Amino acid sequence: MPNQKILYITTEMYPYQEDTNMAAVVNKMALKMHQEGNDVRVFMPRFGQISERKFQLHEVIRLSGMNIIINDLDQPLIIKVASLPGERLQVYFIDNEEYFKRKQYYFDDEGQPFEDNDERAIFFARGVIETIKKLNWVPDVIHLNGWMSSFVPIYLKTYYESDTYFKDAKIVLSLYNEKDAPLASNIGEKLSFDNISGLKALETPSVKSFVIESMKYVDAVVKGDEFLDEDLDKAFNETATSKSEYLDVDSINQLY
Fold first, then answer.
1. pLDDT tens per residue, range 177-190
2. CA within 20 to 30 Å of 182's CA: 2, 24, 58, 112, which one?
3. Which pTM was predicted?
């Protein structure tokens, strides 16, 4: 259905990341919906490997300048934007020196997860939500891809519950086989600062536990990878949320 406002929130997208299924799928979904006459925006983190010069990123001054408070500390939010190469499709990048300048994604050179991955995910989720509101652009569909984006519905249905801005948006979650990793044991304290508590994911906080937690805060769940690992597949089969098996890009608009 054309003429919809569709927001893709993702941690990966081609050509900014290459060689992953998620990056390719998000690129194809966003382009297909854009070319069919929808108003499409993409939000993702500005990881350190993404070349600002190569992809012609520039800061959006009117959107930057906000601070997000995480764990009682003010973290400045910087918004950058680029057009997908060869297309008139805008991609917005959530940036912050503390969280996203490093050249690796989630693991250091020794393969250990970054201790602040939880704060990075919280900052990303809050940053996307606040920037969308500042854009004064109300999405009809929010499609989530990548574990960091799973914090968005958790925040929308708790911290932002009384905010009517997103109340009519349909939220779709795609599941992918991402490398699991523990999140900081004190993530519960950071979330409680935003009045978020009682999450099952907090019992054993990890990348996967928060993805699974987010399934109950969305309107539809779909397999982003055709075959999911055992834990994700079990959670997918058990969720009471409306769900769909793997869909190719040409069929994904059935969810919208």
1. 999 999 999 999 99
2. 24
3. 0.97
